[in-house]
Amino acid sequence: MQIRLFKPQDAEQIAQLFHATVREVNIRDYSSSQVTAWAPDDINFRDWAKICSERFTYVAEDEGVIAGFGELELNGHIDCFYCHKNYQRMGVGSKIYAAIEAKAYELGIKRLYVEASITAKRFFLNKGFSIITEQQVERRGETFINYVMEKVFNC
């Protein structure tokens, strides 16, 4: 398994991974209508290529298969953080997170924060994040619960 930065040719596989993960993993914690609103069928690969290129997007690649990805913004925000359904609980997320945290340290970022899904909350708690607040967000007419979480570094 290799952890590396995003390449534009990864966009289609990343978009498909996002879609499948939300639909097949997050369905444990959200309703069918919620996951359909979160990950609609009309995914635009160009949008993913643009967004992933504008951030530090780390990709876990296993012999040509993208097993997961996570995005770090310059302000310490961790956006999209997903692991392929076939790579759950295999340490993929931990490896991606380690790359993100190392980059944050390199950039002098003192605080990481994320809006974690119900599904991802435990992962981030295990990485030392604290829950700041539970919130309700709206996407395409559906309301979701997620958690604003942060990790502050004492450097």
UniProtKB/TrEMBL annotation:
One Pfam short name: Acetyltransf_10
Residue stretches making up the N-acetyltransferase domain: 1-154
Name of this chain's protein: GNAT family N-acetyltransferase
Organism for this UniProt entry: Calothrix parietina FACHB-288
Organism taxonomic ancestry: Bacteria, Bacillati, Cyanobacteriota, Cyanophyceae, Nostocales
